[in-house]
Design brief:
Structural class: alpha/beta
Strand order of the largest sheet: 1-4-3-2
Helix content: 25-40%
Number of strands: 4
Distance between the termini: 34 Å
Length: about 170
């Protein structure tokens, strides 16, 4: 009986994105966005691109919101929580890199997701400085930007894109 693949390692037989793009093409597109914006990490992905890589096992999705957000607002199944900042804290989690290293090795592509792509941008920057070569931010975040009524979920984001998520 063969061993199942490591949950941290990309699957070599990963299928391409639904529109036929390979993981390499999605990584290249993210990298082009990163270079265009002069980012300190590999690049940026749309929620749909991140889902394709996550579903194919080609990159590891890490949720950097607070435990309360992850629990009560919802989360992507299979995306572990590594809090960038704990609820109420003003500074980043000092154990962030250690917790990240427990979830994903530095040689595995990693994508960061938060509420609106602000904390995940910071997480991708720190991860890149700490040795993750393919660190990427998921644009729009899980809930997207505020609309004119001050609500999230109507202007972009993972949920608005209709991508899979669960709530506990």
């Amino acid at each position: 009986m063969s061993q199942p693949p490591s949950p941290h390692a990309p699957r070599p037989d990963a299928s391409p994105a639904p529109d036929g793009e390979t993981a390499d093409a999605l990584f290249a597109r993210a990298g082009a966005r990163g270079r265009e914006k002069g980012l300190g990490y590999h690049g940026e992905l749309t929620p749909a691109e991140a889902w394709a890589l996550h579903a194919a096992g080609a990159a590891r999705l890490i949720d950097v919101r607070t435990f309360a957000e992850w629990t009560y607002v919802g989360h992507v199944e299979g995306a572990p929580l590594v809090e960038w900042r704990t609820f109420g804290a003003q500074q980043p989690n000092p154990g962030f890199i250690a917790a990240l290293a427990e979830q994903v090795p530095q040689d595995v592509p990693v994508m960061f997701l938060c509420r609106s792509a602000v904390r995940s941008h910071s997480a991708a920057e720190l991860a890149a400085r700490s040795g993750w070569r393919l660190a990427m931010n998921v644009l729009e975040g899980f809930e997207g930007d505020l609309d004119t009524n001050g609500h999230r979920g109507t202007r972009g984001g993972w949920r608005r894109a209709g991508l899979p998520w669960i709530q506990t």
